[in-house]
Design brief:
By secondary structure, the protein is α/β, with parallel strands linked by helices. The two termini are 34 Å apart. Bound molecules: nicotinamide-adenine-dinucleotide.
Length: 437
């Protein structure tokens, strides 16, 4: 791909629509409002707090990312979404139990005005949920056309210039790419015939992409990770990315594993287990939704450790991931990791991690960064899979036949070098020989 010749400025307002207005979505919306009011800091957001080094270390040039690339300002963001429950964003945020009452109170006037549009939903894809705020009695194609109308109406009534859609809905049952996912034509035919290979999340992504709207996939669902969507994204000049926000345990895994690998320490096993009690945990209590999550979580170690290159170190790893639904914990998950590593001459060692984590607190800034970066990418004329946003995902999308980068530090370098490349700045290789000439 050629470097963008110019990047259109972020004129006017940016609309953000989330299919799914649950814990992650409402924590994100409330957080943006609290930051706008000066009541909190956007901790965890690279776009708001991060800097980017330019040029040599001796030059002292490290602007804020948001001053380096033209991102939409927070006060230009307008929110909306869909959910199967009719609760306003305020009611949903209260039920999610993530934020303290003082934050809920401060965000109440703003959140109470955000009402979910009717969802395209089918319980066969999310077994443990049922709701009333659902579009009814149509083919999947009709539902997808209705979502397109929803996007158009939102744009008109809210007066936004551009829209980005970020899936914050539940994890659907495990699906694998099917013949009907291969081309846009086959996909439309399959929607018209209510083919079971078409999950509700795909109706949203199809509607967004064919409306020229960028799409980020925060769940491990297949959604945009199929050839038909990728072809449509190129055709409609839409950047897309996914899948599954990298928060909690996988974030820690992709921070630690690159360190063991860099030191050539061996590994026999990594056992991860979690207890969580939010609605996401309830959905994942169904084995078919858990399978989708498990597949997404298992890939990271394999790709980071490359057992085919290091059979003596990583050829016999037992990697297990468990999620246990345990209501008393609510959104405050606890994740335990037991890591069996070995060192010099094969002597074994163990590492235990106990992460008392807040999932949606980690996920909210990811949603913010993704919508701002996807909007930037679109204004820069970038389309299709945005691999530079792998940083934010548990199972990053890549071009066909290309293995994904899971190492958080490589992902971070890739992201920042992409921003430098977009702005015509020298890439940073960390070679540093010039300081010693
Ligand atoms: N919390 C995290 O840190 C985290 C991390 C990675 C991925 N995720 C994923 O993000 C998603 C959201 O997580 P959450 O904690 O907010 O879950 P949540 O259960 O609180 O919210 C999801 C919402 O999606 C709604 N929904 C389900 N199907 C829908 C459809 N077809 N259309 C519209 N709405 C629909 C549900 O009613 C629910 O309100 C989940 O898929 C989760 O696996 C979350």
């Amino acid at each position: 791909m050629r470097r963008p010749a110019n990047i259109a400025p972020p004129k006017g307002k940016l609309g953000i629509l989330t299919p799914g207005m649950g814990a992650v979505s409402t924590t994100f919306m409330a957080g943006v409002e609290l930051v706008r009011k000066g009541a909190a800091q956007p901790v965890g957001s690279l776009t708001q707090m991060g800097t980017i080094r330019l040029g040599k270390r001796t030059e002292g040039r490290s602007p804020r990312i948001k001053d380096f690339v033209a991102l939409s300002e927070l006060d230009k963001l307008v929110f909306g979404g869909w959910d199967i429950f009719p609760d306003t964003a305020y009611q949903a945020a209260c039920k999610a139990g993530v934020l303290e009452q003082k934050h809920l109170d401060q965000a109440k006037p703003f959140l109470s005005k955000i009402r979910p549009m009717k969802a395209a939903f089918d319980q066969s894809y999310v077994k443990n949920l049922s709701g009333t705020n659902v579009k009814k009695g149509k083919t999947k194609y009709d539902l997808a056309l209705e979502i397109k109308d929803d996007i158009k109406n939102f744009k008109e009534t809210s007066g936004v210039d551009r829209v980005v859609v970020a899936w914050c809905g539940s994890t659907e049952i495990f699906l694998i790419a099917d013949a009907v996912h291969q081309t846009p034509g086959k996909f439309v035919e399959a929607m018209k015939k209510n083919n079971p290979a078409i999950a509700p999340s795909m109706l949203y992504s199809w509607a967004a992409i064919t409306s020229g709207v960028p799409f980020a996939n925060g769940a491990p669902n297949l959604t945009v990770d199929i050839p038909a969507m990728q072809a449509l994204a190129l055709e409609h000049n839409v950047p897309i990315c996914g899948k599954d926000f990298k928060t909690g345990q996988t974030l820690i895994k992709t921070i630690l594993a690159p360190g063991f690998k860099a030191r050539m320490l061996g590994m026999n096993g990594w056992f991860s287990t979690n207890i969580l009690g939010n609605r996401d945990g309830e959905v994942l209590d169904d084995p078919s939704s858990f399978k989708t999550k498990e597949e997404s979580k298992l890939g990271a170690l394999e790709y980071i450790l490359q057992p085919h290159l290091y059979p003596q170190l990583y050829g016999k790893i037992h990697h297990k991931v468990r999620i246990n639904y345990y209501p008393p914990r609510g959104d405050n998950k606890e994740g335990w990791d037991n890591i069996d590593i070995f060192g010099w001459l094969g002597y074994p060692m163990q590492i235990k991690v106990d992460f008392l984590c807040r999932d949606s607190i980690l996920a909210a800034p990811i949603v913010l960064d993704l919508v701002l970066f996807l909007d930037l990418a679109q204004r820069a004329g970038m389309r299709g899979i945005q691999e530079w946003l792998s940083f934010y995902f548990k199972a990053p999308m890549t071009a066909p036949n290309l293995y994904p980068e899971h190492d958080l530090f490589i992902q971070s370098m890739k992201l920042k070098n992409t921003l430098r490349w977009m702005m015509g700045q020298e890439l940073i290789t960390h070679l540093g020989q010039e300081y010693y000439d």
